[in-house]
Specification:
about 375 residues, alpha/beta, Rossmann fold, 13 strands, about 40% helix
Length: about 375
Amino acid sequence: MKINALIATKNTEIAQLIENILKQLQIEVVISSDWKSALFSQETYSYYLVDQNTLEPGDSVRVSSTSILIGLIHEASFENARMWMKNGAFDVILIPHELDALKTILEKTSELIRLNRMELLHDDVGGGRVSAFYSAKGGSGKTMVASMFAQCLKVNHEKRVILIDLNAQYGGVEAVFGIDPIRSYYDLRPVIKELSLTHILNVSVNDQTTGVQILLGPANPEKAEQLPEELISKVIRICRANFDHVVLDLPSAFNPISYTGLQEATDIYYLLTPESMAIRSLKQATTLFRRFHLGNKEKLSIIVNRKHRKSELTEKDIARLVDIPIAGTIQSDYFAIQPTINMGRPFYRKKKEKVRTKVSLDVRKIVEKVMK
């Protein structure tokens, strides 16, 4: 397995010292003075070693949960360490005094990366995939597609799947599955410090027909405002450690909840309807993604939803207008899927069962592509 590292610093002497250590461990090295462009590049690195002197006031450094972030500081202080830990840093190194400590960290972690055992680096992060469904434009169908994606993974591929409804204000997943919400992750606030899988299972629901585990939100605007950002992050990481797939239905609003979901995701699927207004919203969203270092090109893709022969834009038009790969296309088939939604029935019930709608077939093709 290839292991690579990005050293983000303007100090050539520091870069040389760290590069020597990395090369001793057979880790490929890229050096950049601009950490922002490097972080949003198509390349994903095993390690991000970021010099604090490259940061500007208010900058937030976040990397994928499958990578390791190490902060390089020049002054030992509690405030420095707290800032890096808040950004999810694996460790903080005082440069140049703690180069030996850096080498020890790299030796231990690189071996686990080579063995594909990243989950052992943290007791709350496992090897499952986190698929986030997002769209800046409301009414794009992300709740429906996320629900069908979760059902198909469980029924057709027999994966351990949990679907988390992060639309904390108004919900939506419960309507697709035809369940009455009783408890939600809002009820996990009192146990946030000792949060475990048992707590999560106690407030979630298992859909008896498909076997998908469903964790609902409070569906209450007032309660949504009381949700700590730390809770959402912990819930996702614990679920990732215990499920093969964690599917996130994100709110359209760009808020702390959607930011956390996007940050924790290993795959981001942007739901795009084939119309010019949706393209405009997408471009605004990608500007925010770049600003907050979310969704590099490797993990961000588009799902074109509600494709119709009379649609304003074709798939070729979208590919020409947007430099983001298209993961799949879902046809418009509203009248065929509406009865299933109204009765709260699953779209997939048995493995290899013949699907009844164009939408079900298209989602299944996307899932099969993901599973390859």
